[in-house]
Amino acid sequence: xxxxxxxxxxxxxxxxxxxxxxxxxxxxxxxxxxxxxxxxxxxxxxxxxxxxxxxxxxxxxxxxxxxxxxxxxxxxxxxxxxxxxxxxxxxxxxxxxxxxxxxxxxxxxxxxxxxxxxxxxxxxxxxxxxxxxxxxxxxxxxxxxxxxxxxxxxxxxxxxxxxxxxxxxxxxxxxxxxxxxxxxxxxxxxxxxxxxxxxxxxxxxxxxxxxxxxxxxxxxxxxxxxxxxxxxxxxxxxxxxxxxxxxxxxxxxxxxxxxxxxxxxxxxxxxxxxxxxxxxxxxxxxxxxxxxxxxxxxxxxxxxxxxxxxxxxxxxxxxxxxxxxxxxxxxxxxxxxxxxxxxxxxxxxxxxxxxxxxxxxxxxxxxxxxxxxxxxxxxxxxxxxxxxxx
Amino acid sequence: xxxxxxxxxxxxxxxxxxxxxxxxxxxxxxxxxxxxxxxxxxxxxxxxxxxxxxxxxxxxxxxxxxxxxxxxxxxxxxxxxxxxxxxxxxxxxxxxxxxxxxxxxxxxxxxxxxxxxxxxxxxxxxxxxxxxxxxxxxxxxxxxxxxxxxxxxxxxxxxxxxxxxxxxxxxxxxxxxxxxxxxxxxxxxxxxxxxxxxxxxxxxxxxxxxxxxxxxxxxxxxxxxxxxxxxxxxxxxxxxxxxxxxxxxxxxxxxxxxxxxxxxxxxxxxxxxxxxxxxxxxxxxxxxxxxxxxxxxxxxxxxxxxxxxxxxxxxxxxxxxxxxxxxxxxxxxxxxxxxxxxxxxxxxxxxxxxxxxxxxxxxxxxxxxxxxxxxxxxxxxxxxxxxxxx
Lengths: 390, 390
Fold this sequence. Notes:
- Two copies of one chain form a homodimer.
- Chain A is an alpha+beta fold.
- Chain A contains ten helices and 16 strands.
- The first copy, chain A, has helices at residues 50-60, 80-98, 119-132, 137-146, 196-208, 240-260, 279-290, 293-300, 306-313, 379-387, and strands at residues 9-14, 26-31, 37-42, 67-71, 105-109, 155-156, 159-160, 166-172, 185-190, 225-230, 268-276, 329-332, 335-339, 342-343, 356-362, 368-375.
- The longest helix of chain A is centred in the middle third of the chain and has 21 residues, at 240-260.
- The first copy, chain A, is globular.
- At the A-B interface, helix 8, helix 9, strand 14 and helix 10 of A face helix 2, helix 8, helix 9, strand 14 and helix 10 of B.
């Protein structure tokens, strides 16, 4: 149930030798049409990696890319002119081997920032990947595994529409997971027939309601890329609204998988801010809580310390999220530990022994709500990020 | 060299029994004039603790407080109407014992949020503190020790002006240290003669350039309070500009002490953003870096991972801090590891074995700069905040 689940796609994942671990590190996804469309969204970081800059240029020029080459083992970010030349060279190498023009190939990289890619290895890896291109699930899974960094499992989600089209996907990302996209690379594939504009609109809406609300550690990456490729091989024209709903479902499931595999996390936390005046207000409050290290460490310690939730909520300016602090309720795993901004039911009643944590903050001023997914801050997070360069 | 260093002040620190540890937990500072003035700044958190709300009311009504009662062992925050009544009762108890009116007494609390104070113990402690009030350094140090929570040392700074007046101070704070004040209680004393308006203006400027730029863990408290009491006992009218400079010096030293004692920290990090178009722009970029958990864990691991510095800087919108990402330099402890947004001198040359870390990010677009003080994110921080309710 991978990127090759919809008709019209081939994939490969190989070991180019970029990772010192010797694990697979180069993936290729190819859209064989017959009616190709492509869409993409990228990090909003002001230091976008060279492949992000390259992809933006290609898409801005009006190209319809039909292949994506992705490497782990090096982010090719903050690498200057040489980095940009390397990103272009990756596209050219794949295009040459696939019989495409370079602007038909998108490029994604993930790994350490500020180091140049070993291009001889990358070129050999691309050649090998083109040789190994195949349809079917093993090839898709090989690609999904080749983009992993600190991920402990590959992440793939797929759905079938009764209308006759399918969506497949692969994602990587375990740290630097924050909004304006989480730190991740995602390739979504579909065999629906989609107009380019509809593909872009669907992708934008789906990411807004999924990856943009996954905030594991508040850190925004330089390389985040989400690409949607449509082949049209099902022969079915997708209803844009139905397709957007299905794509949103896939992206939300992928976001849950990303949060569920976040570096060192022991709890997956869904923070729902309800009763807000607007979705944006609810999102701002949820994000402030999700980014509080004191809240996150309390969760790691199994401590339902709701004071830290209010202290974090209280940092959002009133003009961003209007509410009366004296009316706010906080419920943790079903226990309303804070009522009207003050002491509620006994915190001893909260069970935080499981991995899933549900927090509801009710602002009681409006009808809007939003849910932010985050993680706890654990010793393992510190170990993973303090003891290794990633 | 404590709050009793300037003439006209008495202090006390006693054990009221609020802390389970049995350590001192209630302090009193009294201004004996003859020309009293007072100023204060508070947390901008929208869930201000009851004592913060009480102090704001008293000052807004035009009172000139001459005493401060402070307790550790309980924040009296998110405690509703009972919490407000308790804050008022603390002021009334101190006022009665000191022969003052209640609006001459300010109240500060620190400790766990969402729990009511044991008022019988607080009242007994206030009575005991009034009996033990004394001038001289031991009394001031006793007060400084009684406001400690996870602090490992008491924090006191004092200066003498050649003009004939002095400034003394005490501070507490080790976690929830973030802007809009760090999480802390600070009492500043001076025997200069100061107009109320000059005292407030001096305090506002001094905190802006000190505590507001200390951002240990990005978490803003509900209880932050900085109080300045002037006695006039030196008989010398202070030049407002000279006094502001001296007060800023004291506050900056206190901020360094707070950062130097931050929960679990192994590195004290000064992030200077230079070459900015404005001080606000420099501050925004510095703060974004200071709040990046990936940057902070890299520092904990002794890893000069400059890519994480740029990734964090890149989250600040261009309208907040205009700069060209392709021109930015990053220097860590004297080694320019990033030049022009790309690879600079070898990162292996950076020595991060000491506690002090100096980071300079040069945006190269203007003349303004600002320095943010922060800490690394360590296993000990997680332990302190995950394993204990504070």
